[in-house]
Amino acid sequence: MCSDTLYTQDSPMNRHQNRVTIVTAADDRYAPLLYELIRSIRDKPESAGIDISVIATGMSQAVAELFSGLADNLVDGYWTIKISKWRMRNREWLQGRAAKPYLPDYFPGYETYLWIDADAWVADWRAIELILEGCRDGSLAMGYDEVDTGFYPGRLTWYPGGVPVIQTYCMKHLRRSHMPRKLLKEIGMARPLNSGVFALRADAEHWVSIQHHFETLTRRGRIFGSNQLAYVMAVHLDNLPFNRLPAWCNFMGDPILETGTQRLLMPHLPHEPVGIMHLSNRDKLRYNPHARITLHDLAGQTHDSTLRYPLDPENTPEEIRTRLYPMSEY
């Protein structure tokens, strides 16, 4: 199956001038976040040698036209796996999750693919440099699906008699996919990986492995969850090379605010600058550009702030402000 190219600066069947592309996906609801992600990349001069490729997952033509000059490639999403109409049921946004194992099929011709979820944005270019370094030797560059200052991801249930039973992320999705008990014992306690930010070379053997596991898992399991479990299986079952990214390359917690510079810092020593801020599971912040949260600075003082990318109103086109932010301050 081939995707329909809506807009592209170069034929996707040809080798591109730039060897690296950052890929993401969005629908109309995520369009403001997509714009902020693109701006967070293009506002940094280091991005000049990198293309941006977008998968439109149910995006309207009117919104797609707004991004035609912002992305180097913009294509319609499609179902990369066999799925019933009942499971589709107007859930085109899930095509973005199903697309991740097939990025070279969507945008052939690049040497390296770096995925960033549309609800994340680049705060410090060091993160991009480290992610690309992490996959340069053919490894999968990806971080864990957790806030590194929090608890191990899982659910602990206490039964009568004081018997504890833990269910981890991997256990839950292996069971939902009806995988054999042997797999539960083998990787049930593996730390889950987060596919919101990752990078792979086009020639990496991981692609075939991840696609195989993803297709197996989604025959009976959910797309949501199976896509991340497929990476765990490629690393821990197939023993494919893996370089773990630090949490600041895909940070999902509450950062520290550096007053003066307004930079976001990691909450623990040595307070590294956040490289990529990911608004995962933060619907209030994702869907309302006015939403505010309380952040602490290094002195312990509180500040009313936001975790959205700070747009420059003077450099934000009128069409973007009126079409994507009809009730926004931008």
Descriptive report:
29% of the residues lie in helices and 23% in strands. It has 2 domains: 5-149 and 189-248, Spore Coat Polysaccharide Biosynthesis Protein SpsA, Chain A, CATH 3.90.550.10; 252-324, no CATH class. It is α/β, with parallel strands linked by helices and 330 residues long. The chain is globular and about 60 Å long. Helix 7 packs across helix 10 and helix 9 (206-217) crosses helix 10. The two termini are 40 Å apart.
Indicate the topology.
Elements: E1 5-8, E2 20-26, H1 31-42, E3 50-56, H2 61-66, E4 73-76, H3 85-88, H4 94-99, H5 103-106, E5 112-116, E6 120-122, H6 126-135, E7 140-144, E8 154-159, E9 163-168, H7 169-176, H8 181-187, E10 193-201, H9 206-217, H10 223-236, E11 242-244, E12 256-258, E13 263-265, E14 276-278, H11 283-287, E15 293-297, E16 302-305, H12 318-324
Parallel strand pairs: 2-3, 2-5, 3-4, 7-11, 12-15
Antiparallel strand pairs: 1-4, 5-10, 6-14, 7-10, 8-9, 12-13, 15-16
